[in-house]
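Researcher: I'm preparing a figure for a lab meeting and need a structural model of a single chain. I don't have an experimental structure, so a prediction will have to do for now. The sequence is pasted below. Please return the structure as tokens so I can convert it later.
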Amino acid sequence: MKYILTLLLICLYLTGNARVGNSSVDSLKKILTQNNKTPADTLTVNQLNKLADTYFQSNPDSTYYYGQKAVDLSRKIHYNSGLANGLLQTGHVDYFKGKSTEAQQELNEAIRIFKKLNDKKGLVACYQAFGAMYTLLADYPSAIKNLNLAIEINSQLGNNELMQTSLYKSMGNVYFSKGELSKSLDYYYKGLFIAIKNHYTIPAGNLYNNIGVVLQNMEVYPNAFDHFKKALEILGKTNNAQALGTINQNIGEILLAQNDLDGAIRYLNKANYIVKKQNDKDGLSSVYADLGLCYAAKNDFGKAISYIDTSLQIAQKYKMIYNQAYALIGLANVYNQQKDYQNAYKYATAGQQLSVKLGNLSVKANAALQLSKSLAGLGKAAQAYDFLNQYIDLKNQLKSNESIEKSTSYNFELTFALKEHQLKQQQYEKDLIYQQKAHSQRLTNVIFVVIILAMILISGVYYREKKKQQNINVMLEHKNHEVLNQKADLDEQAKKLNDLNTLKDRLISILAHDLRAPLSTLRGLFGLLQDDSITHQELVEMIPSVLKKLEYTSDFLDTLLFWINSQMENFDTSVKKFSVSELVQNEAEGNKEEAESKEINFLIDIPDGLTATADPNSIRIVVRNLITNAIKFSDRNDTIHVSAYQEAQKIIVKVADTGVGMSPDQLSKLFKSKVDSKNGTNNESGTGMGLLFCKDLIEKCNGEIWATSEPDVGTVFTFSIPVNC
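Model: Understood. Here is the structure written out token by token.
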């Protein structure tokens, strides 16, 4: 059984190499927040320390290598924080390998720097490391003193309960090593309650494992087994290889104690596979010793001695005192079974000497038992009897009723706390679901209000346009009568009448189509909502498409209404001077988003002081239509170039694109009422009336408009307006 070193190493908060109750090291932390003032060398030191932290569980030599590089570089650039953390890393490795003098020097220097920097977290880590080291050295008063310092400083940091849990585990390890199992349970359960309250999954699993080890030492095997299973259930979801190896080994030891040798070997082989993969020397030494004891119980003494001797060699090489004592006592056990009492006495004596140094009751008891057996075999009955009484006394201390009662009491408290936590969690989930439903309902109500307002707005626009269309029809009929009455110009007037009728029919058709489409879409959408054919998410996804149709219809109606008003006899053209650049920039900005969506390059080349005299609203509509057409018939990465300049007493404005262009036949049909609209490069639709409106508006401003185009090269629309009235 490998209790001392495994329980002691748990206090290494930077490592996951503890065999009992410590989580495997987290993956490398995110690099410290960078800013322009942080020198590159300090970032390198921080990363070296992170690497050192990461490698401890699998390769302490790598930890020492990276930690030492961090120390050397920090000294070179006078980076105190990096130096202190690097010394903390190398100090861990040195005392883990038995170099306590070097470790003390490194940790003391780190403490001096952390005090200077007022880095309380660093101080907590150093004092915790000292506590672990002194526990390994069986200097329990010094271990408790340092851990109490760590607990006191951590309390000053505020609500750092994760570190508090780790410190309680470390303190529990000290009292376990001293054999004061009752006090060790106090600290383990304190840590466990905090871990459960804060959902610290890995610490909770490790503490269940620690408590199981205490119960295992008390030989309360069923309860110990239950705690190991709970730890395995929790940590099995975390892929924490170190912890899983430890728990499998602990279960194997229980089965060994209950003489289920095949079951014990099965679990120990699982643990052996994990510790080999992790290059965990402590775990490897412990597992080999346990496997040796299993094969000794099966009377396969050759294999037993081979396993335990290998365990002893690893422990001696890495100065693992507990594992050395455990292996020596194991060899004494094997030789006693073979009645080779001389060798048994030799190994039992060496193990007993180390157990005194460790001060662990379990190791002392096992050493006393093997000494009693070997002395009895050598015929030294009186000495054998003394060690037998010592063994019985130590076992009675391990099976303290106080510890068993305390464990039972804590388990009742823990069960109650778990149920209370579960009820709070369920209530929290119910409240969260209710809030989500309320939010969803509010969102649905807002969407319905928006849709209803949009429907009312569209209906109002439709009614207004219908009335205006009726007025237009009356006006057209009146014009028809005038044309019929003008005998001298019959042919010309007849042609105009025919054009007007054609235009009227086209306008009616366009209005019927363009107003029907969004209304039909809304009608269909409300129908789907009424019979629950669509989900809330689908409704949200459909809204942008509906709004886009409404926006297109609104823009077209604005243009149409302006043009219709321009046809009225009392239409006020509001001729005045305006900035051509400002007008074009405003319209370009309005179409910027659509151009960017097709990745079209937009160039504007207009002098700031260029002014013209005309109706700015008419020119704005013309520019908007020409830019919209250019975007519509341009592909991705095409270019639209808007330019303007003065020529004599005219302002010339050009809208040129590198889009699909037009054939001569298409070009000849422009600016006429029978133009058929083509779909754009993204299948954009249109009415085909825009250019007709543009021509009419430009001519009303005493200007001209024309176009040039070439297929696959692009199109240039040009219009002119006066500089002055």
